[in-house]
Design brief:
The structure holds 2 protein chains of 2 kinds. By secondary structure, chain A is mostly beta strands. Chain A is about 10% helix and about 40% strand. The longest helix of chain A has 13 residues, at about 185-195. Chain A starts with about 25 loop residues before the first helix and ends with a helix. Chain B is mostly beta strands. Helix content of chain B is about 0%, strand content about 45%. The two termini of chain B are about 20 Å apart. Classes of the chains: A mainly beta, B mainly beta.
Chain lengths: ~200, ~160
């Protein structure tokens, strides 16, 4: 019926790894032992932790910009702060290239990663794992982070994102305009295709 | 197991332990961990026990120069010395494990440099554990080079000898 759809899906983000995990039985599917290549498009990737640390004055706000390596795929976030009497801090994160925000407003420390005890005080955050990984697949992607101290005393805040990146010596999605990383594109592709054909 | 998911490796549960004592406020104290030469290692978890959580970590793979901890941003003007150990190795008061959602294969004999920075102001005793599996190629049935398919106890086929 014309006009029945309240909005179009034209500009809705389609997650490239949305089918990495099935909707049901996620835990069983995530930790399937015995697979060299997990059920995702992350073949040839390796782990990386991008971390940012601020020393914030009372109620102060600071920003940070994280340059990501190629094809960074966000899997989890975790955080820690030196003072957590009035909520610690709040933080908002953006995908700069896609102009996408991860929260509609700053999310409190306790909800961001879950405050847990570290050295006798609730200053650490359990790692929060995304249900489905988020892929920063646009070249030169950046994470922009805005962090506000909620304490009336100076607060040292550490924030880390864990994810997978394409190895810098692997062939992969390249920048528009050609190879800028220096490796031999054609031979790298042939080598990987050869490895895959041999099941390695 | 689903045959289409079988990668023809047998997995042996294994932990690589890394111990170090970091002097008070020492900066980027490097120490190497080498994967044993008998098999590749598939890392699934990182764990740490430390005296104080005021400890930063950098991890580097020597053969490739790969840095596992990003150094691209810092809100501080202070030098970047790595990730908070508790954010890298799991939360809680010294002990939780952090799962590497996608396991990472550390090739045999490869050297990993772990540089630790203390900012607790006191000596920090650290143990880091990489937990995972050794990967042993499974001999194919009928392959004469692999020996008998069902070796008796004591047979020294390398795939069964661990």
């Amino acid at each position: 019926m014309p006009g029945a759809r309240p909005y179009t899906l034209n500009y809705t983000q389609v997650h490239p790894l949305a089918r990495m995990l099935p909707i049901f039985r996620p835990q069983m599917q995530v930790y399937r032992h015995g697979e060299r290549i997990p059920p995702s498009a992350l073949e040839g990737h390796g782990p990386v932790w991008e971390t940012t640390r601020w020393t914030l004055d009372a109620f102060a706000t600071q920003q940070s910009r994280v340059n990501l390596q190629r094809d960074f795929t966000l899997i989890s976030v975790s955080a820690k702060c030196s003072s957590n009497l009035q909520g610690g801090f709040r933080l908002q994160m953006y995908d700069l290239k896609k102009r996408y925000r991860f929260q509609d407003r700053g999310i409190d420390f306790g909800n961001l990663a879950g405050a847990v005890q570290i050295d006798g005080a609730p200053k650490g955050g359990a790692a929060f794992f995304l249900r489905e990984p988020y892929r920063f697949d646009v070249p030169d992607s950046q994470i922009y982070i805005e962090c506000q101290n909620l304490e009336s005393v100076p607060n040292t805040v550490s924030f880390a994102v864990y994810g997978q990146v394409l190895r810098f010596n692997e062939a992969g999605p390249e920048f528009p305009g050609g190879n800028v990383t220096g490796w031999d594109w054609a031979n790298s592709v042939q080598k990987i295709q050869h490895q895959r054909s041999e099941g390695r | 197991m689903d045959p289409s998911l079988d990668d023809q490796f047998e997995r042996q549960r294994f932990d690589y332990c890394f111990n170090n004592i970091i002097a008070a406020n020492a900066i980027q104290v490097p120490k190497n961990l080498q994967i044993l030469s008998d098999a590749d290692f598939e890392c699934w978890w990182s764990m740490c026990k430390r005296t104080s959580g005021n400890l930063l970590l950098l991890l580097k793979e020597q053969a490739t120069g790969r840095d596992f901890v990003g150094t691209s941003a810092s809100g501080d003007n202070t030098p970047f010395n790595g990730i908070e150990i508790d954010l890298w190795a799991g939360m809680t008061n010294a002990g939780a494990a952090f799962p590497w959602s996608v396991p990472y294969i550390m090739p045999a004999t490869r050297v990993y440099t772990i540089a630790l920075t203390d900012y607790s102001g006191a000596q920090n005793t650290v143990q880091i554990v990489f937990s995972g599996h050794k990967l042993w190629p499974r001999p194919k049935i009928g392959d004469p080079a692999a020996g008998p398919s069902h070796p008796s106890p004591g047979t020294s086929g390398y795939a069964y000898g661990y």
